[in-house]
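## Example record

The block below lists the input lines for one assembly entry, exactly as stored, with component labels intact.
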Amino acid sequence: MTQTSRKPIERDSSELHSLYKKWPDVKRYLRSLGCKAADAEDIFQEALVVFARKRTEPDFELTVDPFHYVKNTCKFLWYNQSRKESKHRTSELSDHITAEIDDSWFEKEQQLDLIEKALKKLGEKCQQLLQLFYGKGWSMSDIAKKIGLRNDKVAKAQKYRCLTKAKEEVQKLQGETLITPKA
Amino acid sequence: MQLDNTRNIDRYLSGELSASDYAAFEEQLKTNVELQKEVELQTMIKEAAMRASFRADVQHAARRYKLNRIIKWGAAGLGAVALILATSLWITSSSKKESEKTQEAPVIALSMMEELSPNADFSSLPIQYFSVPKEGDVFLSDQSVLLSVPKKAFLLKNEVYTGEAIVQFQEALQANEIVKAGLNTKSGNDLLETQGMFSIHAYTPDGKKLEINPKVGVYVQVPVDEHKEGMQLYEYVDLGNGNGDWQNPKGLARIPVPVNMKDLDFYPEEYEDQLDKLKWKRGKSQRDSLYLSFENYCSFETNNTNTHGTSRSLLINDPAVPNSQPTVRTPINRNTMVVRFPDVEARFPGGAQAMKEFISATCIYPDEALGKGLSGRVYVSMEIDIYGLISNKKIDRSAHPILDAEALRIINEMPQWIPAQTRGYAVRSSIRLPIDFKLDDVREKRKGETGFEMMLRPAPKIKKKAPKSAVTPEELEVIPQDEPEQEDARQSLAAEGDADSTVADTPCSYERINPSKVLAFWKPEFNNTNLATREFERRMKAIHATCNEDVLKKYTSQLGKPISEIDRGVVNMGYSDFGSFAKEQVGAVNPNNPHLKNIKAFYDKGVTALQNQASKDKNWEQQLRNKWDQYLAELRTAHSIATKNQAEKSLKEETAYNEKRTVQKLGLKNQRRMNPVAAYPQFRKTIGFTARRSGGYNCDRPVNRVITYQAALRSSLDKETAQQRKIERKGVEVDVKSGTETRETFSVTANGRTRTIAYNSLSFAVSNPGKYNKIMAYAFPHQLESYQLLEGENGNFITSLNDDIIYDICIVGMTDEGYEYFQKQTLKGGSVGAIELKKISESKLDASLLQMNAKRNSKSTAFTSELDWIKAEKSYFKEVDRRQEMEEFRETIVRSIYPCYGYDGGESVEITAPEELPASIDSEQEAAAEINPFGI
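Predicted structure tokens for the full assembly:
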């Protein structure tokens, strides 16, 4: 993909809004699965992120109602989480679930989570830049305008700087998480 | 370096490198593990950035969502409600405070919230806001409390407010929240155990305070783990010092917990108990279908006026208080109780025409009456019991003692009737028959038919001699001539007895809740409605007791309404018993269920379908019965014809036998050559010829030559003597014939000798005749081919036996359990006395009877069809008993189904009838009685 061919990814935020309105339903659903109220919203948002991301994938075809997709994703996420936490283990459920869950996907998700955390440690401008470029597919010049840089070249250079910084942060965080269990 | 590296990798990943650089990079990547990791990491970062961007979107949506909710509500007023120990409440009012803000919803939301929030009752609790569109909506709070706001739920300055509204809602469900929020948990000085405290207020989008419309209300449903007894709704009263108190406790609507329909019991209270007591089948489907079979159940007693005087007076004194004790009526025995107006009148087998023929065939115009020229019409009244047997016959209106006696005798001769029916069950009924004795031209018409008529009487018991010329000039006027159309109707009735006897579907007038109305909602389709609750189950029992379908309809037609509201409606209908239900404050299940409308239609459809089913079943059963009855009627008709033929044959044979013996004894025997051809001695000699050519030969001669030959033979006798004997023989024949008909000892004198043919009377009585449904006695004369079915009454049989003939006697008694049997061989008359019948199996009975019939002589008439008839009669009694049992069973059950059964209007209407009736037995009544006897 070249930069010139990039097009801003059309995203309809209204879909997310309407999905969010279903939050009480999802909450009840998650609680019925044994999820704590505090975790429920995280899971719901995570599921929405997954959905939004999937939506942009060219080969993703939505075969069910978006709400159901989200609800199901919530279920998977919750099972994953509870599996991780070994809290929600019932023989019946786990048997049933393992069949459905691809572990590598889950691991990658976890890694992504970690990187996301690291990104959060970046400055606001860095985050915005990276999100706009990679997330929304904006062109460098647009981004430059948006965040008040002189031109696209500057923006680009800034991007590399941000990336490098991000890598450092990730490595830092990875070191911590590796150490934490030991400690 | 780091930065360059990053740039290179990024350019590589973004496809910005030139072809050569790209290849070089690839090359490097293959060997450099560090670089591989870097690339991987950077890819991940790319993805993570992307994700972060999505997450930002989601969070944006979340913020908007929350903001929206915040916006939606505006500020709160001051009413607060604590749900003390409550499950859910039906808030009908709540106080409010004015708040004057004129800002636009979303933008101003936050500021407006800020304006409104201080108005909230519980400053320490989080406030939730919901915006309500005009048409109302349902919300779920953070703690899953359901708020249902219908349209027109609010009042603005005492006018119904129809615009959008903002609801401010606060909740504290858990004890710790309540304590943290510093909420009062006392009412005055009494400690309260709370299951939740709430505050609810409403505002217009511009912040004007709204009141809750007490007529509509906002429905609040609170999830609780258990229903605690005594939970009440308290109102918050601000004491002004920042504290409030809980006051004015009110009953709370409990939301009934939906229960699966199949676990509920909507039968009338005593129905299942009653069935269990009777050890009836347990299956729900069987009990349902039994229950449904009582749809529009009418008792045959409904028309009956001469029973239950006591219950009727009770009815009058005790106007239909639905719950008062069900009934004083005793179980009826249909065989002792006369039904005055049965659905189908009792009728003579074969119908009116057959009866007419029977009477004219049976009637012997008494000599004396003939001599005195007596004639007239005798009215005989009698009862036909459920088996079709005639009893209690008496002269209703006499013409002359002699004619009366003959009329009674005719009735005695009658075969079993087909009993009257009410709703498919045989019942005892009474009949009034007019029998006409007319002397007129009938005499001419009947001349010469006497013999025939005599033979129609199977076992003549009449003492007086019927003179040969004593014609029987009677005629039965069954049908008044002036009503031809009715005659047609009657005849068609006689022809196909079942056509009109299908159950009359006239609904009976007593108040009741028909099963279809109940079964129609007792289905899984009604799960999760008001009806599928324990609360309604209890009400249903009480609804049954009201016997009023309108009460049930209130509940079934208002599925969205809180149950207790309907309870109150029922109280207003006059059923004060429902007051206690109303006090329970039971709410509605799923009041906003959009399917309620469909469910209602479904209910109506279900009722109709069930009604059709019920009447179909009823008709089906009726048809089965009719078929059975018809089969029996046909068989009986056939049997009565066969019996007549048998009697006729028997008499003929006996006459022939007597004649033969007499002629022999009187020395007239040689002369009896009835058939000259038969007398021709065969094979005594041989004839022979020689065949001289090929071809056909015939040994023959003209017939007239035989006669010549016979004549020649006879001419060898004294022609005079022959003539003389012939005349004497004729005389003997006539004497024997008439003598035999009387079945009394008689003498014949001829040829200078006297021959006496003796008849001995034979009498025997079956002991304990009451235990038999029917007793039949057969005589098998050894010397005759036919058998005789003896006539008897109540187990007493009197008949006369020919002294020249040896008889075997068989007696068959039918009881409910089976057959009992007695046989005695080689009888010659006398009194046998009491006879004890012994039990016998059906197959043995068959064998015994067939053996008795067959062994007496080689040409005895086949007895098998008689056996068939015996069995049909037996099964008839079984069938009648079965029907009666069924009827009694239903009579027992119906009381548990319809508590008001017996309090019907129909019966009370007739209360006056019995008093009027005796007085008005005048011509009109009589005419009606005459028209009716044949079952119209």
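Chain A touches chain B at residues 1-3, 11, 13, 16-17, 19-21, 23-25, 27-28, 31, 41, 45, 48-49, 52-53, 111-112, 115-116, 118-120, 127, 130-136, 159-161, 163-164, 166-167, 170 (CB under 8 Å). Residues 12-101 of chain A form one domain.
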